[in-house]
Amino acid sequence: MQRVTKTNDKNQKKELREKIQDETIKRLYHKSEEERATAIANKFNLPYVDLNLIPVEAEIVNSIPEEDARKADVAVIYKVGKKFQIAVIDPEKYETKKLLEKIKKEEGINYNLVIVSQDSLKKAWTSYKIGTVTEKFEDSGVSLKKEDLTEFEKGINSIIDLKKRVSEINTTEIFNIIMAGAIKTKSSDVHIEPNLDYIRLRYRVDGVLQDIVKLPKKVHRIIVSRVKMLSKMKLNISNIPQDGHFGINLENTQINVRSSILPSSFGESIVLRILSDSITGLKLDELGFNQYYLEKVEEQIIKPTGMILTTGPTGSGKTTTLYSFIRRINQPSIKIITLENPVEYRVEGISQTEVGEDKEMSFADGLKAVVRQDPDIIMVGEVRDPETAEISIQAALTGHMVLSTLHTNNAAGAIPRLLHLKVNPALIAPAINLVIAQRLVRKLCPHCKEEYVPAQETIDKIKEVLSNIPRNNGIKIPNEIKVIYRSSGCSKCNFIGYSGRIGIYEMFPMTSNIEKIILKDTSSSDIMSAIREDGMISIKEDGVLKALEGLTSLEEIRRVTGEIFSRKG
Ligand SMILES: [Zn+2]
Questions:
Q1: What's the predicted TM-score (pTM) here?
Q2: Distance from residue 164's CA to the centre of ligand 1 (Å)
Q3: For residue 186, how far is its CA from the centre of ligand 1 (angstroms)?
Q4: How far is the CA of 487 from the centre of ligand 1 (A)?
Q5: Going from the N-terminus, what domains does the chain have, and what CATH number goes with each?
Q6: Which of 293, 248, 238, 299 is nearest to 270 (CA)?
Q7: 214 alpha carbon to ligand 1 midpoint, in Å?
């Protein structure tokens, strides 16, 4: 009898414990969905992840069929070889367990689990919107009639629409639809990549490649022929790279397209760069400088002499920034000469010269000639050799304002880079006025962005980033973080969730503090701490502050600057 009572007691306690736990979770449900997910993660001793903070690749999510994923409340979010990381809401849900068993047994795939919220899963599932079109294609051969894209452009309102239309359209029109879709979505590049059994179509929108549709392999030959015809390439040659260009006539403009074809193991792969001439350049206050940085820039660009450097990888918007400086200071009484490779934007009232390895003139040769032209401001596309570095520094020291770019990851890195280019350390501080480093991030679509309450552990991590920001620069740092921002995609942003881009920055003007360090020949970490002492906010911190304002997302800051919130498990 006693035994039975004891067992009953134990069972009752266990039941009670489970009940309390569930009620805790229930209570949290009303507080925040993310907080509830962390409670579930704790319950099962599994890591919690917020998929609004970590970019997930569509290809990986597509590793398991949409129907299965939705039924079982799972998403594959990471994949290394045959090891998956799978996001689940409840590891004990019947359908979830069933699918996981099937993956392990039938497909021999190992996985580890992370707990996510329902919202996170929905976000991952948006990757399934890539359509596959395999039917309704009649292999009718190549038709080369001259069509007008305008009609198609009018009819296509979004990428989703394009997918629908692609399946209704015959092969002869497919190329026009692809180009119309690219123009409509303001893509900069179209990638047509053959795989073993399908053709992958991707657009680059705001700097990021987006999967659009998988096309049946049989349309490949037609698209390749069309591109070759239009670009005046050799139709019968498919084993060497070819490039060319063609124009597309829209209602009242002509759009130029640069085409490139490269042989690959599954057939020729095509990249089409859409050259838009509508780039007008941004104004200084449209670049996204915070108040502290805007003041720094304003102070420095009006100086008559010295050098301003922007740094960052290719495509980080360095040239756009320099151009906005030029636009700001451009006036008839000032002579501005630029040396570029190639000339990206034409600007009224300034003299632009193309230089480069494939031209007759190198940067250094051009620069020597330019200095003799008595300019006030010289823009040198890039400083990448000792000779260009030396002449630029000399020009900056002898009555010219020099604007240029350097290929380094952060602002502090400009100093060791200049030393590496054999610049005399004693000349660096007198010549350099300002060093800027930058990246471009996509802006959240204003039509579909929404606030949500993140988990406490996410808030703690954000606060940790904020706690390192120097406090002597007057930048407002939020004390409390109640909500952060995400987007789910809408017809206005072609279901991407982002629209347009903005810069995130770090910068430092030269100070005696930094000069001392340079002259002591110390490491770049010493340079960095001197710069921080002077008040510099890092690119990542500037990005996190912009994300907290809802201008961009933390997911985007992570994509561009790397680790902020780790992918656990
Ligand atoms: Zn939107």
A1: 0.80
A2: 19
A3: 15
A4: 7
A5: 32-126 (3.30.300.160), 131-275 (3.30.450.90), 284-561 (3.40.50.300)
A6: 238
A7: 23
